[in-house]
Amino acid sequence: MPRTLRRAGLAFSLLVLLLIALAGGGVALYGRASLPVLEGAVTLPRAATPAARVVVARDAHGIPHIVARTDGDAYFALGFVHAQDRLWQLDMNRRIASGTLSEVLGARTLPLDQFMRTLGVKRNAERIYRHLSPDTRFALERYAAGINAYLATRGPALPIEYLMTGAPAPIPWTPEDSVAWLSVLAWDLGGNMALAIERMRLAQRLPLAQIRQLVTTAPEDATPMATIDYVPMLRGLSALAVTAAAALDAQPSQHVEGLGSNNWVVAGNRSESGLPMLANDPHLGLSTPPLFYLAHLRSDRLNVAGGTVPGLPVVLIGHNEQIAWGMTNTGTSVEDLFIEQVDLTRPDYYRTPGGWARFATRTETIAVKGQPAVRWTVRETRHGPVISDVSANARDALRRSSRYVLALQWTALMPDDTTMEAGLGFDHARDWPEFLRAAAKFDAPQQNIVYADRHGNIGFVAPGRVPIRRPGNDLMTEVPAPGWDARYDWSGFVPFDALPQALNPPAGRIVTANNRIVPRGYPYFLSGEWVLPYRYKRITALLDARATHSLDSFAAIQADIQSPSQADLLPLLIARAGLPADRDEADALARLRRWDRVARADEAEPLIASAWERAAAQAVFEPRAGRELFAEYWRQRNLHQALLNALRDPTIGAAWCGKAAGTAAPAPCSAQVGAALRAALRDLKQRYGDDMRAWRWGDAHAALARHRPFHQVPWLARWFDVRVPFGGDMTTVDVGGNDFSDAAAPYETKMAAAMRMVIDMAAPDAARFAMPVGQSGNRFSAWYSDRMDEWANGRYVTIPTDAASVERCACKRLALVPAGG
């Protein structure tokens, strides 16, 4: 009997292995079938075809060189290759913008769909499209035709995500889909709404002084915002504050401290070549596939290379034959929240400065996989959509207990937005005047754009629609304002000529890193929430450390991982640590005293310092803020500046930690800091083992590119996500943004350089580019993740734009042949 059982067990095991092998073989066959055709020729249908044959020559990294006769054909081919390599991403991006994710992914994406439908992004995109110039509409139409040509000629197998989710095949792309996706990108970079909501929540528990101590910026960058104590006004609006927090949770992304980018440019007298040089690395959330897609487009009027974004027919960051440009986020306050008072006797009406007005309403219906469709009414005021209606629970709570709702006014919801025209204009500009004319059409969100050209000029402009706030506005976006009071209404937009700009400054360099960009006395309010200036100061110091620069020195600056924030904070922590309680504490303190503040991936010290900072922030601020409110705000910021201020200023420290007793009182918050070190070491041992010598910052701080949606399924995440050890921290030039509030992975890099570019205008074809993950979004492609290690280790590729170089570098060549041609 036992022998029979053993034989049966062996037979069953062999059967299971056979089934697994067959399944694996089937998946592999399907995967290969889903890969696009990259060589030979594709004859296109008459309904979607270029005017003439277009050649797409891909290099060894999958970067396409598009050679077309006309601009229209170049845009067509860009749409085609975007669909070839990023079809699932395109489809998901369209669903995000249109609020239709739940059709495929079910109820878990319903809050996001409801938020995007409430904003009305797709509806507004249709209005924007009608206002665009004929040339811009033509570019969008040709780009959409290229995507649809691929859909008409693709093989029978879609990317494997469609098979695994049961998603339907993508429907034809429209020009309005591109406009809508640009609005989503603007929302992702806009971002002052989140902090206004968090202040509203904090006001339910804390006084004004402590709110400002918690939600703070660098002292030298502080800009006056509210001039009144708004806490009494907000204390009676607890239900509205709860619904505001629900709206915040539904956002497509949340602000994380340090989010932004670096760019700089130097004049010819500061470069080894004698012509200007430019660098740019935008910092965004890591994903697979990544946001950017490298490409080169060549036609009768175009010869442009750099970072494109699937869904858009433009090179957003890059260069043509004459100029180069790069962008960072300005961080301007372009989102105002308004508390709207509802007439309880007529709930379809709300209060305005001129009396009561009826809400504009529309009915939205969202199909949800696996359950009945969800239908609700979206309300709009004269300011914009009512975002406190996003959550069904929030709507019910408001209607039961409050006569107020929260409405959003946002510059990107203007129906005459021309940002798409600006992007196309940058690609064609030949000099500074042409570039400025294009920049004047850039509406949302405001960006810091640096410029260089082959004529020897360097420049800077911060274009975008910036609302003008009235002189009587005593809240200045710090918290939501009463919507019935006209003094909080916008009175126009800052004129383009009054926006920050410079051409050939005497210093011979321009640097931006999301820092304050205007001097004291600038006549318009831009923001009171500038990113801490660590990266700006470090880049400036490194530029000034050399008389002249090269591509190598620019690349070295982009790779810099000296941590200025730890240089500020760590001495304060060490001074308050007290006597070590055991050998591990003594070892940790000794290591930190010796550490040079360079956040290397292969060392333990950055991990110990970061864990101590995390534990100290929690120990200092959570008891007074309360666990729930602290957790909410911690998701927005890692509280570095707030902690620094509490340790430097005895008054602030006493407000959070209590007054120390005794005549020889220790420094403020010493007890909390000492306890935080012990808590941090306990946590690190639980996560990484008892041997401190084996701890590695790069492992804990690994850069993780997350797949949408399979990151949320652990066994699929192991196959689709892409991970690599990574150094740096929130404030290094080579940024590695983590989220302390994430209990499972508080040190993991979630935000980093989404692209890097360094260019010398003496030789634009030698420009260097880097991008995380890979060009292809198809898991079975050799280009799915081939760039991740190269990116993490500071290595670049070039994208030559002259015909001979393109001919030499091409390893795969595809002809797009017109119907009948």
Automatic annotation (TrEMBL):
Binds 1 Ca(2+) ion per dimer. Its cofactor is Ca(2+). GO terms for molecular function: hydrolase activity, acting on carbon-nitrogen (but not peptide) bonds, in linear amides; metal ion binding. InterPro entries: Ntn_hydrolases_N (IPR029055), Pen/GL7ACA/AHL_acylase (IPR014395), Penicillin_amidase_A-knob (IPR043147), Penicillin_amidase_dom1 (IPR023343), Penicillin_amidase_N_B-knob (IPR043146), S45 (IPR002692). The active site is at S261. Ca(2+) binds at D336. It comes from the Bacteria. Keywords: Calcium, Hydrolase, Metal-binding, Zymogen. It holds the Pfam family Penicil_amidase. CDD domains: Ntn_PGA_like (cd03747). The keyword Calcium applies. One of its GO terms (biological process) is antibiotic biosynthetic process. Belongs to the peptidase S45 family. This is Penicillin acylase family protein. The lineage of its organism: Bacteria, Pseudomonadati, Pseudomonadota, Betaproteobacteria, Burkholderiales.
